[in-house]
């Protein structure tokens, strides 16, 4: 039986007397010497009595099997030099040689300094007992590690599932955000494009009307001059001429008022559009900040859940980090509530601004609707043509007449196009020519594209040159340009 932890005994350590006490080599020096020889002791403990150094020391090795191997090598080294345990007790001339051996049962039960130290610091074990004990410890450790590994795997799986859920949620939020931004940008672009197209159309119509009125005024003035030179005596003709001149002056005055009114509306519309654009930019910034804050809250919740699973390790630092994250998460959630309230306020303000813009758009349309167009004068001058205009207006409003057909392209996509072989359209082209045919088919295609209710026409700002609705920005720019041109013309006259 050996003493465990494994220990060795050093005997016959040289001592000297100093001050009435025996002194010898320190344990540190002996440990360094044995370490150089490859025995790797943990420490060397000299034994002292009332006279000082006893000449004995205990060499302690590690508790594991490598310590046992070092202890056996230690003993065999001394035995090879004939300085083992038996040699120590048999020799009568020990001189200054060190003797050493591994502590066993007889040393453990011996009386004196050696036995007392071994009793206090170790116990007796056989090699088989040590092996059995190690096996029990290994088995227990293996079981504990297996249970711990299983628990950690379960926690890891839960955390992976939660992380996957958070990642999926974040991906969904990002996709929704991208879709919302894309749809919003497309809608804004379409609105601006449509408003621009329609305002451009109205501006062109207004320009033609103004030019027509100016031409009429010139003709009337020319006729007045002719009548004056001819000294016409026909009172009825003179009154008619004066009446037409007065009507023209009224129309000119109304046109001037319409110019000023449209200019005012255009400037107001421009200011409102710029204001709406700034509010939209602010709303997008708030939306980005809100979504970023939501993602940050999701990330912090995930981190907090992971730390809650790891809280069982009992580390104070982990608890402190959890408390800090909980406090920060609370602040983030309060900040998210504030952003939500601000976002709702901006949405309400944006809707109000859109309503105001739509009201301004309708006011411009109503103002421009009163302006006469060359087409109306053309219809008044030709009674037969006017009747045909009314007839084709009824055709356009007839829901039972739908001169369109559906075609399929090579890729399998369907599209609705005008049926050029329709009987009414063919008759129209034959009687009135390509110009009238093109005007009617274009109007019908526009009504079909924008799906007006019951085929009834609805006023809108339209760009006839590009075949689309005009944006408010285009209207503002064009009206300002036309107003300046008319102002210069009046100044020259």
From TrEMBL:
Keyword annotations: Coiled coil
UniProt-listed InterPro entries: FDM1-5/IDN2 (IPR045177), FDM1-5/IDN2_XH (IPR005379), XS_domain (IPR005380), XS_domain_sf (IPR038588)
Pfam families to which the protein is assigned, alphabetical: XH (PF03469), XS (PF03468)
GO biological process terms held by the UniProt record: gene silencing by siRNA-directed DNA methylation
Domain XS: 1-109
Keyword Metal-binding among UniProt keywords: no
Coiled coil: 142-201, 248-356
UniProt cross-references to Gene3D superfamilies, sorted A to Z: XS domain (3.30.70.2890)
Domain spans labelled Factor of DNA methylation 1-5/IDN2: 382-489
Protein name: Factor of DNA methylation 4
